Task: structure prediction
Amino acid sequence: MNLDNLLKYQEADLACKKLLDEIRGNSDYREMKKFKNEFNAAKQKVSESETLAGTVLSAYNSANEYLDKNSARAEELCALLEKDNLSEDEEKAAVSELESLRVAFAEWEKKAAQLKSNADKALMEYSGAQKSGKSARDSYASAKENYEKFKASKEDELQKLKSRRDTLEAGVEPELLEVYKSLTAENKYPAFVPALGDENSPVCSGCGMMLADTGKNDLKNKGYCRCETCRKIIYKP
Ligand SMILES: [Zn+2]
Result:
């Protein structure tokens, strides 16, 4: 079992990860993500205010229909009241219906004012969201440009590190490589750690826990074992 190869591979992999972390930790990259979120939020707002405007418009239209219908009826009633041959009861009924219509019109006026204020709000939100969406899009583009430049400046170095890592990968035992990759996929870096302490009571340097007998024996016989606690690969230093 050649653990040296895994150790060298791990070194190369860590160097790659360090540079990748640096690239991803770049401030323009973080800005890019931030502005992308802002843009999406603005887009959502634009669509919400469009829906609101649609709802308000349809409510306004039905209120208008209601008004048209009832003002026609009010004119009829006024014409009726001008006639001389109305009975007292007929006159009473017409006056009472006119009164109900007057109340209904007052209600409609309130409703129209509310609709108007909703429409204004929707319009304001719509144009605000359009503006902030555009500004987020522009900021995103400029952060992206800077990030692309930065990334390009690191590209050669990254390719070198990756190719060194891939070359070394070929020398690692497939079984160990699989374990290594499953650990690093869970972001457990470094996956391959030395045992600490004396041979009779070795400790995992990944998590600080003492090894149980199985681990101790594997370490002695195979030169490496898995930590029962953190699952990292422990080797004899
Ligand atoms: Zn451990």
